[in-house]
Request: fold
Amino acid sequence: MSRARVIDCAIAVAVAAVLLVTGLAQEHAGSRLDVLGYGLLVVSGLTLVERRRAPVVVLIVTGLCAVCYQALDVDVPAVAFLFAVYSAVRAGHHVVAVLASVALIAALPLAAMVSLHDTAAAALARGRDALEIAWLIAAGAAGEALRQAERRADEAERTKEETARRRADEERLHIARELHDSLTHQISVIKVQSEAAVHVARKRGDEVPAALLAIRAAGREAARELRATLEALRDDDTSPRPGLAHVPALVERVRSAGLDTTLTIAGAHPNVPIAVDRTVYRIVQESLTNVTRHAAAATATVRIDYGADSLVVDVEDDGTASPAAVPVPGVGLLGMRERVTALGGHLHAAPRARGGFAVHVELPVDRT
Reply:
């Protein structure tokens, strides 16, 4: 049980007890209080348990109880109704609270006349005593003051979150600019110079040193990773990012580049979470990139299966990988594994028994 619920229960029991004790005291003084009167007093107080969940209903019930026990000659203040007015105003039901208050102020003297069988003046006086207008206004004002305070607190919290998000975006863009200014030029120089050196060596018929080939490969990989990092840093989550809907276009681009690639999508197409949607695209993109660069494959297949509570992605090729050669995980594969693990999924990437490489990913999908 939540703390607010415990407080509501305690208030309801306390108010019911106060009303009942007050009623018993008046009975000892000579007034009439039957079983129905006891019940109305208790119900009026205990109804406050639901004052947060159903403030309007509680307002109406406590008002009716007050009118009824006044009609039974039980001159007990409408304390429960004051709490109900406070809760209704705090919840934003101003008009209902005002109308209910006016109706009760008018009904209490009539109920008193039924029980007194006396003058209208005495009935008006007892109705005024049962529901003091000053206390009624105070209850409404307290509810409105707390409602305004809570709204200001919510706005302050929202502003704080927006400020923190804006500062994070600014810092991310600053880092992207620093990386671009400090690294892009140097990596480009390394890449261009190594490409030129390899080209000149081959043109002369000389054997290209292994170290030079390694430098060229490292330059290409560094340039690619830097571009991906800058793209991620500059992404502010407001511009469209590729997801499942963009996988067919991705496969088509790979196919047009010379790799015979087929795409199969099985199952229904539910609205998957955004994180899963983007992760699937990145996995397919990285897998096909590795195939085109490292696998020396002629064909590749991509299969996406929508299950009852999971989404399965398989990317396979017929390249040169074999179970005998243990692959060394690169940055791309490590990145895929981190993405999948962060979403609570499972990734298996290894050479196939019949040759080639296979990436198998299972991602949980919550459809609730």
